[in-house]
Amino acid sequence: MMTIPEISQKLFAAKKAKGLSFADLESVLGRDEVWIAALFYRQASASEEEATKLLEALGLSLDLVPELVSSTVKGLGPIVPTDPLVYRFYEIMQVYGMPMKEVIHEKFGDGIMSAIDFTLDIEKVEDPKGDRVLVTMNGKFLPYKKW
Amino acid sequence: MMTIPEISQKLFAAKKAKGLSFADLESVLGRDEVWIAALFYRQASASEEEATKLLEALGLSLDLVPELVSSTVKGLGPIVPTDPLVYRFYEIMQVYGMPMKEVIHEKFGDGIMSAIDFTLDIEKVEDPKGDRVLVTMNGKFLPYKKW
Amino acid sequence: MMTIPEISQKLFAAKKAKGLSFADLESVLGRDEVWIAALFYRQASASEEEATKLLEALGLSLDLVPELVSSTVKGLGPIVPTDPLVYRFYEIMQVYGMPMKEVIHEKFGDGIMSAIDFTLDIEKVEDPKGDRVLVTMNGKFLPYKKW
Amino acid sequence: MMTIPEISQKLFAAKKAKGLSFADLESVLGRDEVWIAALFYRQASASEEEATKLLEALGLSLDLVPELVSSTVKGLGPIVPTDPLVYRFYEIMQVYGMPMKEVIHEKFGDGIMSAIDFTLDIEKVEDPKGDRVLVTMNGKFLPYKKW
Amino acid sequence: MMTIPEISQKLFAAKKAKGLSFADLESVLGRDEVWIAALFYRQASASEEEATKLLEALGLSLDLVPELVSSTVKGLGPIVPTDPLVYRFYEIMQVYGMPMKEVIHEKFGDGIMSAIDFTLDIEKVEDPKGDRVLVTMNGKFLPYKKW
Amino acid sequence: MMTIPEISQKLFAAKKAKGLSFADLESVLGRDEVWIAALFYRQASASEEEATKLLEALGLSLDLVPELVSSTVKGLGPIVPTDPLVYRFYEIMQVYGMPMKEVIHEKFGDGIMSAIDFTLDIEKVEDPKGDRVLVTMNGKFLPYKKW
Amino acid sequence: MMTIPEISQKLFAAKKAKGLSFADLESVLGRDEVWIAALFYRQASASEEEATKLLEALGLSLDLVPELVSSTVKGLGPIVPTDPLVYRFYEIMQVYGMPMKEVIHEKFGDGIMSAIDFTLDIEKVEDPKGDRVLVTMNGKFLPYKKW
Amino acid sequence: MMTIPEISQKLFAAKKAKGLSFADLESVLGRDEVWIAALFYRQASASEEEATKLLEALGLSLDLVPELVSSTVKGLGPIVPTDPLVYRFYEIMQVYGMPMKEVIHEKFGDGIMSAIDFTLDIEKVEDPKGDRVLVTMNGKFLPYKKW
Amino acid sequence: MMTIPEISQKLFAAKKAKGLSFADLESVLGRDEVWIAALFYRQASASEEEATKLLEALGLSLDLVPELVSSTVKGLGPIVPTDPLVYRFYEIMQVYGMPMKEVIHEKFGDGIMSAIDFTLDIEKVEDPKGDRVLVTMNGKFLPYKKW
Amino acid sequence: MMTIPEISQKLFAAKKAKGLSFADLESVLGRDEVWIAALFYRQASASEEEATKLLEALGLSLDLVPELVSSTVKGLGPIVPTDPLVYRFYEIMQVYGMPMKEVIHEKFGDGIMSAIDFTLDIEKVEDPKGDRVLVTMNGKFLPYKKW
Fold first, then answer.
1. From the centroid of its chain, how far is CA F125?
2. In which domain of life is the source organism classified (chains A, B, C, D, E, F, G, H, I, J) (predicted)?
3. Is residue C107 domain-resident?
4. Which of A58, B77, B95, H27 has a CA 20 to 30 Å removed from the CA of F76?
5. Residue I1: pLDDT above 60?
């Protein structure tokens, strides 16, 4: 079971009260909406300036700045997610994880795609047969160091 | 622990013997290299024509056509992957799953990104500070039906 | 262990106090009773209009509208359900999952039955040898996209 | 990980060699195709007569009759299925299990739907917007006995 | 970890305060003491009349009637029980489950013993070498339906 | 997943070939059929004499005596059984485990029912409304020793 | 994660406040210090007399007597303990469990060491190379009953 | 499920063929029978001399010396043992682990009992009311180092 | 999910309020900053003197001394950590655990590195290509005792 | 349970036959012994040149070069290791993981220590009170990228 941190609940409540979308906050902070949503769930850490801007936009007390700036324990969910939207990303890892591994090794050699030096964007692609979700992940390739 | 199907092992061995890359096979089959790697692991199913082309390119017997055409039990790995490259995709789901959920709901309403009506591409972006892996997922948005 | 959301508890308490059945609510909302029960557990999301109708029928404050409209984290239960009624559906998946897979692949090709573009009805079939539960699932077939 | 019994593999190989569908076998055995698929996976047990008919239709030795008639250990899969088609039935149980429980209790009182005195049919409903899978489960309601 | 429902705690507290045993309650309700203990843990549901009798015997408010009458989510414990007394029943299932399966199939054919159309009694058998616990389970045999 | 020991497979094959039931073996060995089934699965250990009688009855080589006499690692199944017949005993433990604990403590004090100094019988009770399975467990009560 | 019962917390707090060791309590109760520590964690049950003596020694209200006398759900910890001291006993079971099984079977035949008719003592053995912990377990051998 | 190493199977087979007990081997090797049983399961490593003596006593080829001398991956069993004899040691850890922790901390301060600088003996104590198993563990106390 | 003890929360809050780093506390206590961080999470135990110094430095009441001095249940996290920083240490164990085992056995013989008689230091190594984390673990080698 | 790849078994057998230590191979390959042990377990990948040198040193066929050069699925062990030596590294992660996280965040900001751009050395430090194992991990700090 997932436990949403208290600070996240405050941020979501204020966002709803102000009627702001993550896209709105994107222009306020100059950060991508996914990163901002990650900050809401405290899966990312803000600078003092970013925290201040966000809290002001949400009409929340600046006393909360330290709660947005600190490093946190990351990873939100159950081991296998039950939520269908999140589960599909688990399924992609289960079904396409090894094929991706093969292609990445072929293109880059032995190593991994960083999930830290990493960005993730989501776009809506309108389509008459049904709109599509476009997820773009961009991570630095890290070759295994030998020693 | 992951068990690689026997047919996958034959395909990989032939590919290595022929010195072919997935990129080479892409031009043979007219399918993306990730999809072809998924076919190798039998996470995807070929048409008879695709199976024939692939087996010919790999110098394998056409008797194997049915083994590439049949539907299979998908999902390869352990519950939590131990391989660092595959794990990073698990980590992305753990850390960014809920933020993605928020942004997708905001953009599209209640529903999910399909992992079936779905494509996945991998590109290498050269970068003097370290090349980058670009993963693009494109899935149809499926709104929850009400009844 | 399952945690029932607070909003669900309020809805169930009001329903019991009003002496309403899900069948009664079906005529109020123009939605199927199973979908309404799913809404009670916040496994489905209402439109503003549906939320208003429901809250009025239950004699609850319209302040709760946003709690019925928002998207939620779905999936209620433990990994393997302990409740005998719910477990039987787990057992059906364990025993008949693969046979269903064979038959669906034979009829439709490689793909899945959507659980999103999906409806589920429950009917009581009276029978002198013991009444029967009739569960009808109707999901769109989604063929695997190739790319 | 799922282990397919050896007898199942023989049955599937013979069925493929004969070019028979489960629908074809339905008319041979006078049993539903899903039940026959369950028999293939040894999740169901045949009578001697059914076993004989099936083996003859498949061109297999009648020495296998006892392997189709005996009771077996049922339940095929991993605890949480990784295969996307089978997983969707797990997801339905996760998302709609409790709502179904509420509706069944309301209609029938405290008890369960039997998964033993139970039938399961699959139909293809053609639809211009995408064909649909219709799954019908019909199980006897079993009220809790008091003592 | 096991969570005891609040209503159970009230019932146990009142029973202790009144100095009543389950055997005493057996004569009040005309139900077996094991069934009554199951009702205490809300693993069984009472009729209004049974609930009233029980609450009166325990000196509790009749406002609690609905909490004893409603259907509940059953199954109390951790996946593998840690309590030694309860564990022994898990051990019996681990050690004797398959032998019982063989004998039941031999006597009855393919099917199961119902745990719903089912009664369970516990008796104390005095014995100079150490008293013995006699557990009698009586469940309807349910043959697998074919279709 | 359950692994059936090789010796068990030999015993079951010989029993089938000889057309013997466990009830038949009961009269040969002077032991209960459930205990004999437990011996088949090597969840119980025979004396040399019992092993000899059994192997003779089954027409198997007496060289197997030591394989029936030795102590073995007991416990056959997966953590949560997937087989419906065996699962029902898991369910009984989940649903009635704590109620049984209460009644046993009330009748005997703090302690457990032994699963070692223990017998288990299965009887078929014919009933026009459906035959019933009668399982009788008889275990020594072991009070907790204080020191 | 381990949940310490409330009564345990009261007992530990009072013991600390009084500056008493388990060894001190041993002389008060005439019970071994390990058993008393087990009582503190409610892994053992006291007689009324023992409970009274203990509460008086700790300066706690005699109203707590029933909380020490009742039978409780035993087993405190996570499935695999994370605490290094407790883990070592798990490790001993992992590494030496099967060797102990062999030796016990050789000395006693098929059966087990009771963990109920059982005592456990801990002594400190001073040693210039480092003091040693001496744990003595004494459990009745229970031979498997045949029937 | 437990996998017994091949070398262990050879050792056990030879021991049975020679009719030797671990107690017999104790006098051959000058090591305790439990340690020897641990060596059989390759949970302990022999010196070349010990390996030679053991293999000679068992009438096995000295080519096996390296297989007894090498360090191995230790820990035999499933996470929670299903075998009743081994399980009781798991139960002791579950029930008495925390009480032992309290008493050890009180006697020694913060630290652990080593399971490496450790011995384990098993004795049979004859008793007219039922023989008893005496297990003596003797491990060095290791205080937590501060730095 | 990880539960941070209340005392830890107090210590971290006070440290933040005072603007102190673990490096600052290192000079106050004469203990390494990692050990102090372990004390904050109550994975280590202080002497009375250390506790007093720490509480004074943090401006907290000396009433908390006993909460820093007592032995605690150690081990903080979920079985597989979800936090990426902590996970990397799990990954190192998964990937390099067995290689380390080989090298340690080769250098020292059969035994382990103690995690109790153990120190752990972290240093920042500045590097123009990206600073590096240097973790130094120093544990006593414990050879397996034979007996 | 851990499965050692076949190639690893060949390498270990040859190393034993040649009487070579990892330290010997260190001078042959010009790589650290831990990295070479990781290569043995196929947790690292060799260049063609390294593979050739290693196979020649071990007297193995150069046909095995591709088996040392290919990228592999990494991560060897069970989820929680049972081997005491490997477990201690799991324990260090459980006990010191969060303290390390605090100190690393304090020294470096939000980010992780790479386990890919990473080296690991093991040294033996002789000590009259018992030799010590010195493990040095050196990983690049990766700050979380913002976007």
1. 20
2. Bacteria
3. yes
4. B77
5. no
Is the Cβ pair C91, F84 closer than 8 Å? yes
- Whichever domain contains A96, its CATH number is 3.30.1160.10
Are both I17 and I63 inside the same structural domain?
Answer: yes
Among candidate residues D45, D69, D93, the one where a domain is terminated: D69
pLDDT, tens only, G97-119 = 999 999 999 999 999 999 999 99
What average pLDDT does range H137-141 have in this prediction? 98
CB J97, CB I76: distance < 8 Å: yes
**Based on the domain organization, do I38 and I61 belong to the same domain?**
yes
Chain H CB within 8 Å of residue J88 CB:
no
User: How high is the pLDDT of residue E95?
Assistant: 96
Same-domain status, H42 and H88: no
The ipTM estimated for the assembled molecules is 0.95
Q: Band of the pLDDT at C53, cuts 50, 70, 90? A: very high
| Partner residue facing G74 (CB), from E1, E80, E84 | E84
Burial A62-79 (b: 16+ CB within 10 A, else e): eebbebbbbbbbbbbbbe
Residue B117, chain C, CB below 8 Å: the answer is yes
Predicted confidence (pLDDT) per residue in E84-141, tens digit: 999 999 999 999 999 999 999 999 999 999 999 999 999 999 999 999 999 999 999 9
Q: Over 70: is that where the pLDDT of I124 sits?
A: yes
J74 to chain B, minimum CA–CA distance in Å?
4
Shared domain for C96 and C55, answered yes or no, is no
Most H CBs within 10 Å, among I70, I110, I122, I137, to test the H interface: I110
Question: Does any CB of chain D come closer than 8 Å to the CB of residue B95?
Answer: no
The answer to whether position H77 is within a domain reads: no
Residue H21, pLDDT above cutoff 60: yes
Q: What mean pLDDT do residues D105-129 have?
A: 97
Give the separation between CA G52 and CA G32, rounded to whole angstroms. Answer: 17
Average pLDDT, chain G: 95
Interface test with chain B among J73, J79, J144, J147, by most B beta carbons within 10 Å? J73
G1 in any annotated domain: no
User: The domain spanning residue C45 has which CATH number?
Assistant: 1.10.260.40
Looking only at the bridges linking them, the beta strands covering E132-143 and C111-125 are unpaired
With an 8 Å CB cutoff and a minimum of 3 pairs, decide whether chains C and F touch: yes
Q: How many domains does chain B have?
A: 2
Least Cα separation, residue J128 to chain B (angstroms): 39
Contacts of H144 (CB under 8 A, 6+ apart): H110, H111, I44, I45, I116
Task: Determine whether E42 is an active site residue.
Answer: no
Residue (of G10, G16, G1) closest to G68 by Cα position? G10
| F101 in contact with chain G, both atoms CB, cutoff 8 A | yes
Beta bridge partners of H135: G137, H122
| C90 inside domain | yes
Spell out, as residue ranges, where chain J has pLDDT lower than 70. 1-2
Cβ neighbours of H35 in I, within 8 Å = 146-147
Residue I121: which domain range? 84-143
